[in-house]
Each structure stands twice: as structure tokens, then as C-alpha cells.
Amino acid sequence: MKLKLQDLAFAYEKNNEVLRGVTLEVESGEVLCLLGPNGAGKTTLFKSILGLLKPSKGKVLIDGKDVRDYPRKELAHYLGYVPQNHIPPFPFRVLEVVLMGRTAHINNFAVPSTVDVEIAREAMRRLNIGHLENRNYAEISGGERQLVLIARALAQKPGILVLDEPTSNLDFGNQLRILRHIKRLAESGLTVVMSSHFPEHAFYCGSKVAVMQKGRIIHVGRPEEVITGQNLKEIYGVEVEVAEIERKGINYRVCIPSVV
Ligand SMILES: Nc1ncnc2c1ncn2[C@@H]1O[C@H](COP(=O)(O)OP(=O)(O)OP(=O)(O)O)[C@@H](O)[C@H]1O
């Protein structure tokens, strides 16, 4: 599916725009990695993509149709969302949380079928969290909760997956596993938009990088074009060298921060 943002603007308060002139395109098979300092507007942009916030200007188009013109249930077929952190007020079991991803596929008042349960279990197995199935979602660790939310989005089987800092609570191994997973999902045809505070993540799985600063997209392009020492200094105000190293015939780019 194709996601297109056209000259998007949004303000929580009058005369204080948090998004300004945001124009971006992401195609099926691409991973757009959104970088930007704290408070730049990344979550606000994601909420606008999901139709949760109404832009004061511009449009979000999914396959050419305005996101706000889709009935909510139909939209849930197309758009999966992994929020930054989420604890529901009720003590749901982990399996129940993952099954919420199937809601759009279940008729009103019907209960999940054995097929829905199997899809939810398969999503959990893929993320190595099958053993958490009967645990109380509110009582598992932050990283485990993040994996459950990713499983919920996978169970939904959307065409477009939006992930807000999907690796923020994860240990080193799970970060790499999730990034690898995201890359594979895109290779299987999904359209992926994710935010990260780690520029190197874009080298691992991003086909495109967009940099947001004060609500504007200031750079967009391939990771190796956008993630440069000069740009990282401009975005984060720190000295970083982007080096290329070769291992077993493969070239990697790494960010080397100046910490002295
Ligand atoms: N509900 C709200 N009401 C008013 N202002 C808000 C609201 N939510 C966010 N903001 C403001 O909008 C701006 C953008 O916030 P947003 O959460 O989109 O940034 P972000 O790039 O996702 O930040 P972070 O990397 O820290 O998660 C910030 O200045 C923030 O204080």
C-alpha cells in the first residue's frame, strides 16, 4: 500500500504549529525511518497518519484516499500501530491483548475464532513470546510489553505498519531481532514507518530516512545520503563520525560518537 503525506500541518494550540508542511511518500516494500530530537513532532505525525488527530492543513492519503474518509474498522485492516508504551486499565491476559489485533477481522458481537487465536499465537511465536500467553499484561516487563504490542500489530495483518520507537525498551538482542523482523516484513510487501532515536537503525533496516526538526522534515533520502556527521551535528548537536567498515565482503556504516 502507498502512504502519502501532503503538506501536513497540525497544532495542539492555536498559533503553535507542531507539524508544518510535512510531505512524504512511502511505498510497499519500503521502511521509512523517522529521526528527530525529543519533541520534534514524530508521535504527533504518527497520530495524524492514524487519523487520530485532524490536520489543520494538508492530507494523509492511503492508496490515494484520504485517511479520514475510511470507516474506522476498514482503516484497521490497513493500518497497524505500535505505540510507544501502553498499559490498558484492565488486567488483560497477553493472549487477549494480541487478539485485539484481530478485532477488525471479527464481525461485531462475534468471539475470536480458532483461526484468530492461531494467528495471534503465531505472531507471538515469531517474536519468541509464546510463553507469556497467560501472563497479566500489566505485570510483564516494559520490553516484553513492547514485543506484545508488536505481536498485536502483526496479528492484525495490516498493509501499513507504523511503529513509534519500536526498540526503545528492548535489550540489545531483541532490538536486533525486531529490526531484522521489520526488514523482513517490508521485504514481504508491507509499508513500514518507524521512529527511532538511533540513526544506525536506519542503516540496519531503513530504505529511506526522514529527519524531523521543530515539526518540519529537514532531510529525506537514502540512509547513506542523510545520515552524515554534518547532519547528525545539525540534528542532535553532537559530534559523530559516520564510518564505513568492511567485514566478509559486506560494507557497514557505523556512527562513532566523540565522547572525549
Ligand atoms: N496532547 C498535547 N497537547 C499539547 N502539546 C502536545 C501534546 N502532545 C505533544 N505536544 C507537544 O508537541 C510537540 C511534539 O511532541 P511529540 O510527542 O510529537 O514529539 P516526539 O518527536 O514524538 O518526541 P519524543 O522523541 O520525545 O517522543 C512537543 O513540543 C510536545 O510538547
Automatic annotation (TrEMBL):
The keyword Transport applies. Gene3D superfamilies: P-loop containing nucleotide triphosphate hydrolases. Its EC number is 3.6.3.-. GO terms for molecular function: ATP binding; ATP hydrolysis activity. Keywords: ATP-binding, Hydrolase, Nucleotide-binding, Transport. It comes from the Bacteria. Residues 3-239 form the ABC transporter domain. It is an enzyme of class 3 (hydrolase). The keyword Hydrolase applies. This is ABC transporter, ATP binding protein.
